[in-house]
Amino acid sequence: MGRISIHKLKEWKAAGQRFAMITAYDYPSARLVEQAGMPIILVGDSLGSVVLGYDSTVPVTMEDIIYHTRAVVRATEKAIVVADMPFMSYQADPNEAMRNAGRLLKEGGATAVKLEGGSHVAPLVRRMVEAGIPVMGHLGLTPQSVNQFGGHKVQGKTPAAAAKLLNDARALEEAGAFAVVLETIPAPLARMVTERISIPTIGIGAGPHCDAQVQVFHDMLGIYDDQRTLRHAKRYAVIGETIREAVRAYIGEVESAAFPTAEHSFEMDNSTLTELAQVR
Ligand code: KIV
């Protein structure tokens, strides 16, 4: 049957059908989310923080994204797989940006790429789309610019900043982007953007009026216990505690010799045992 087409997303927007996106970075997580019916998976550069232990997305490399995208692609058959372009893989030189975007499709197997920025990246987005590379935009609190923003602050709060964000969204749409992530902006602004462009808006910390929502896998599943100041994240489970409890139980059963039992062990023929008993 193949993967869902990126064009479906625009059809869904036109029909008022909302959809979810989630990040995944490896085979088991991608398999689980696809089995749950997720139509679109982002191999986000958030993997720097939630998988690789960095304190931002800045150190993430092309090799990191390709490696993780390949695992996600191997695990899925239907979902659109979007690979994030890491910091400095597209900012320095447009030709290098084209080659890097191409690598995410050719070597990573991604369906599409995502990059951060508005009007200033629109010419690059157009060039990628013309070369056959589907592009998702990303506006608002773009984490690769966290050092420029001076922290994780809500964006688009002043009239000038909000107007710029609206123009940026239009520029991405005109350049041929198939969707745009809106991160950590006021809900009324996200609503305005959503109403004024024909491509889907995918919100995270952007309120309820976007066409779609995206969450980070580890945030929504409660894998870390130190995370809960993130206002944009909703915990649908507390898997971290479930894992810790299971591991504690395993340690306890090994220490008390309750595990393994015969159920988890393999027997030997009596005749073989008798023969073995002769061996000195
Ligand atoms: O890297 C990521 O996970 C993202 C989402 C937060 C949109 O860019």
List the strand order in the largest sheet. 1-2-3-4-5-6-7-8
Number of domains: 2
Say which CATH homologous superfamily of the largest domain is assigned.
Phosphoenolpyruvate-binding domains
Task: Return Rg in Å.
Answer: 23 Å
Q: Which regions contain 5 or more consecutive residues with pLDDT less than 50?
A: none
Strand/helix succession = HEHEHHEHEHEHHEHEEHHH
Question: Cofactors and ligands present?
Answer: 3-methyl-2-oxobutanoic acid
The CATH C-level class name of the largest domain: Alpha Beta
Main sheet summary: 8 strands, parallel, barrel
Structure annotation, total helices = 12
**CATH fold-level topology of the largest domain:** TIM Barrel
Estimated helix fraction: 40-55%
Distance between the termini: 62 Å
Count the beta strands. Answer: 8
Overall morphology: elongated
Strand content: 5-15%
Average pLDDT, rounded to a whole number, is 96
Structural class determined from secondary elements: alpha/beta
What would you note in describing this structure?
- α6 links the parallel β4 and β5.
- The chain has an eight-stranded parallel barrel with strand order 1-2-3-4-5-6-7-8, surrounded by seven helices.
- The mean pLDDT is 96.
- By secondary structure, the protein is of the alpha/beta class.
- The chain starts with 5 loop residues before the first helix and ends with a helix.
- It is elongated and about 85 Å long.
- It has twelve helices and eight strands.
- The chain has two domains: 233 residues, TIM Barrel (Alpha-Beta Barrel), CATH 3.20.20; 36 residues, no CATH class.
- Bound molecules: 3-methyl-2-oxobutanoic acid.
